[in-house]
Amino acid sequence: MSRNAKYFSRNIVSHKPYLPGIQPADEEEVIKLNTNENPYPPSPHVKDAVLAELESLRLYPNPPSGQLRKALSDLHGLNQDQVIIGNGSDDILNLCTRCFADASLSVGMLEPSYSLYEVIASLQGAALHRIPFADDSFSIDPQAVIDSGANLFFITSPHAPSGREYDQNCLRRVVESFDGIVVIDEAYADFATQNAIGLLDEFHNLIITRTLSKSYSLAGMRVGYGLGSPELVSVLDEAREVYNVDRLAQAGAWAALTDRAYFKSTCAKITEEREKMRSLLREWSWKTCPSGANFLFTLPVDSHGRTGQEVAVNLYEYLASRKILTRHFPRHELTSSYLRISIGNSRDMDILIERLIEWKTPEHP
Fold first, then answer.
1. Share of residues in the chain with pLDDT > 70 (%)
2. Could you say which architecture CATH assigns to the domain 44-258?
3. In what order do the strands lie in the sheet with 339-342?
4. What's the Cα-to-Cα distance from 107 to each of 75, 97, 117, 119, 200, rounded to whole Å?
5. Mean pLDDT across the stretch 310-321?
6. pTM attached to this predicted model
7. How much is the pLDDT for 84?
8. Is residue 21 over pLDDT 70?
9. Cα→Cα distances 143→53, 85, 106, 131, Å
10. Architecture of domain 20-40+261-360
11. CA distance 294 to 9
12. Would you say residue 20 has pLDDT above 60?
């Protein structure tokens, strides 16, 4: 059947799907620095919790993921009715568009940013307002967001793909004056020094989304959550699938959340490697954004002192030929000359550095 078949929704015919980073086969030996996964395994408690749950798989999971809601409300100092659990934070982002966007209620996003926002807006048939960054400092113009005319606005903080953190005062200015719902996507906040959690007490038009994929090493388990006012959370709760988080995911996520020592240790190792790598790139005079995430966004400089999209693609392909995967974003002028590099463990980063040195020397192999 063709894409314009009469049985298809108009929204599905016209939309462009989200394109994830390359996912090699599990048995393929690569250094995977392209999708911001955690280089360390989950807490050992996760395995124990999952194994203990196996015999209960004949039973449906707890619909509201009550144990997780309790753990997260305690963690963030909120009430349980301010927390909703999702099948990854993308599930919560989808719920936000389902509840607060349609053909008459538009969506806004900063450009460039997480491209899923565009996808889920189009699936709802919502118009999309793109607010462009002025330059590659990726600074937010709060007034431009406020004046966008959108009913629902997505802000990624730390920003993707640059890693830039936005301070609470900047975000407060947006939320307090925006006539609609603001979603702050904090997928990488556990690697940052700032977050927007404190704004939840002040504003009832704010939703914050988080994921356990990055800082808790559970990308393969798909657990995320949203935080907001009881009113907004109850609306999202009505729209979510009843059994949206399975029993193994609920058990594993709870075990990961409650092992605070392991969580803090892995986050600390990642941020230490990030800052070591950023320091080296700066020594090489590669412009590299300050990052509050588990990745770096850097402007490669070749052996002739050149930068640009051709240089970035050349390095991307060179690393791929050496079985190191990174991420290149060619669709936007502010990103096309950069590479995004996820932070791996110390061994991964040492090998990456060796390959970068090879590439940037004249007559590299």
1. 94
2. 3-Layer(aba) Sandwich (3.40)
3. 295-298, 339-342, 327-328
4. 30, 8, 8, 11, 21
5. 97
6. 0.93
7. 99
8. no
9. 50, 32, 17, 10
10. Alpha-Beta Complex (3.90)
11. 38
12. yes
Of 226, 210, 227, which Cα lies nearest the Cα of 263?
210
* Three-class SS of the chain: CCCCCCCCCHHHHHCCCCCCCCCCCCCCCCEECCCCCCCCCCCHHHHHHHHHHHHHCCCCCCCCCHHHHHHHHHHHCCCHHHEEEECCHHHHHHHHHHHHCECCECEEEEECCCCHHHHHHHHCCCCEEEEECCCCCCCCCHHHHHCCCCCEEEEECCCCCCCCCCCHHHHHHHHHHCCCEEEEECCCHHHCCCCCHHHHHCCCCEEEEEECCCCCCCCCCCCEEEEECHHHHHHHHHHCCCCCCCHHHHHHHHHHHHCHHHHHHHHHHHHHHHHHHHHHHHHCCCCECCCCCCEEEECCCCCCCCCCHHHHHHHHHHHHHCCEECEECCCCCCCCCCEEEECCCHHHHHHHHHHHHHHHCCCCC
Contact 201, 171 (CB under 8 A): no
- Report the sign of the C-alpha dihedral through residues 4, 9, 12, 14, in that order: positive
Amino acid at 168: Q
**Joined tokens for residue 308:** 């640009």
CB atoms within 10 A of CB 215: 21
Each domain of the chain, given as residue ranges in start order, spans 20-40+261-360, 44-258
User: Who's near 71: CB < 8 A, 6+ residues apart?
Assistant: 254, 257, 258
Q: Which of 158, 160, 159, 197 is nearest to 175 (CA)?
A: 197
For 106-159, what is each residue's pLDDT tens digit?
Answer: 999 999 999 999 999 999 999 999 999 999 999 999 999 999 999 999 999 999
pLDDT tens readout for residues 162-213: 999 999 999 999 999 999 999 999 999 999 999 999 999 999 999 999 999 9
What would the pLDDT profile of 32-81 be if each residue is shown by its tens digit? 999 999 999 999 999 999 999 999 999 999 999 999 999 999 999 999 99
Residue 222 to residue 199: CA distance in whole angstroms: 26
Reported confidence tier of residue 1, pLDDT bands at 50, 70, 90: very low
The residue type found at 239 is A
